[in-house]
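Q: How would the structure tokens look for this protein?
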Amino acid sequence: MDTIRKYFQFDTLNTNFRTEIIAGLTTFVSMAYILFVNPTVLGAAGMDKGAVFTATALASAIATIFMGVVARYPIGIAPGLGVNAFFAYSVVVGMGIPWQTAIAGVLVAAIIFLIMTLFKVRELIIDIIPQDLKIAIAAGIGLFIAFLGLVNAGVIIKNDATLVGLGHLSQPATLLAVFGVLVTFILMARKVPAAIFVGMIITTIAGMLTGLIDFPHHLISTAPSLKPTFGVAISHLGDINSLQLWIVVLTFLIVTFFDTAGTMIGLATQAGFMKDNKMPRVGSALMADAVGMTAGAVLGTSPTSAYVESSSGMAVGGRSGVSAITTGVLFLFALLFSPLLAIITPQVTAPALIVVGVLMASNLRDINWDDFAVAAPAFMIIIGMPLTYSISDGIALGFILYPIMMLAIKRGKQVHPLMYVLALVFLVFLYVTIK
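A: Here is the predicted structure in token form.
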């Protein structure tokens, strides 16, 4: 035990096994919805839902355990929301590309990721991002996940006249989420240990007692077969033979790169891991993502990404890799206990997302608002993420504006040359995705 404590720096991080396990469980509960959402989304592309469920759990476990053991960060990794929708609705349904070819494109992007990570290209890009923009990414993610939580809760809904509006608060499901938010807010204010996790348990129990959440009919079920999707990406690598398909690969690469990089920076900033504007062991953390994406493609699922929901585990004290290992192991157990996961509804996870949004928004105080050339691109990142419903799009807006502003006030030499390159890359990225 002492060896494990030393390896994971428990004393330095002021943590212990109990705290880390609770944090890992909290992160898992916050992420568990992907086990059911991902098969539904990829099922629209014609993929076998059962196989996708198993692939999602295994890819998440592999990547998250790697993150915990090697990078030693309390960050969970799983197939990313947004990029899975791009895979299913834009690439397969919209472009008419067979899912077998699309999953091969994911594998190609993953291999490029591995190469970039081995040569520390991704690490270099993260290190040259200005501090104010890193802080803006953290705050923007906070607003994004709070918005996501409010939408999941039914508090915010689509409105044709104003784009978004207040939901129907009299709906029982929405009232359950509001109840969960209030309970969790009160627990947080009273500094109750593991307040977010306790709030989720109370909300789940309330949902079952009121009939809004069904009691599970049985506890254990066998994992669905991987046969329909396993290895399909490898056998269809030869299909990546046109400019259109390489643009798809490039889009997978850009979206996943900056979703993961932005999320990791935001989480590291929130948890206080950043040192001298750099994230220690960032190379190992990025490798965990690359390994997860590669494994996921072979197993049969869309690209993986670091999950902002990891901040819920950090909020209850998770600071070491033991938290991530716990989350990863629970993904493996989820293969057998999938009926129990059905009780984790959006109304249960929504309060956790909203509370974490409050915590991450505190980063706003550290941005240099007096320097408008920096404040403007930082603001575009912050406001861009929730309004475009995309972490990558929000980052793109700020990264394009930043060098323009610095050149306009004759401070262009202060900008790292790679930031100019990134601005051009994002311009092309936005042009291709919008077009």
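Residues 239 and 339 are 38 Å apart (CA to CA).

The radius of gyration is 21 Å.

Upvote if useful.
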